[in-house]
Amino acid sequence: MSRLLPAFLDVVLVLVFAAVGRRSHAEGFDLAGIARTALPFLVGTAAGWLLASIVLDGGPRTLGFGALVVLSTVAVGMVLRAVAAQGVAVSFVVVATVVLSVFLLGWRLVARLLPV
């Protein structure tokens, strides 16, 4: 599997996270709004990919790689939201961590079950 597909899946799932979050808070389902909501988390995802690519031996399908991407996505995303004076309530951090973990680790677990 090329590195493009795992990166694409991570980006799409972060966008889904942002879209579902906006929808559940009645903030609208417009592309610009989804992009604004997702951007801090996408920066975190990119940082996680860079860090994991440098420090880990395993490829992007591994759970270790995914865990580092999740941690970076949440941490960087929340820091950027705080800097931009957006919400970073503890409950949001918990929900974001759980949902992004399910999304970004979930596809990796499924991929492990599929023949390569």
UniProtKB/TrEMBL annotation:
Q: Which Pfam families match?
A: DUF3054
- Name the domain of life: Bacteria
Ranges that cross the membrane? 34-56, 63-83, 89-110
**Under what name is this protein listed?**
DUF3054 family protein
Q: Which organism's genome codes for this protein?
A: Phycicoccus duodecadis
List the InterPro entries.
DUF3054
- For this UniProt record, give its keywords in alphabetical order, as a comma-separated list: Membrane, Transmembrane, Transmembrane helix
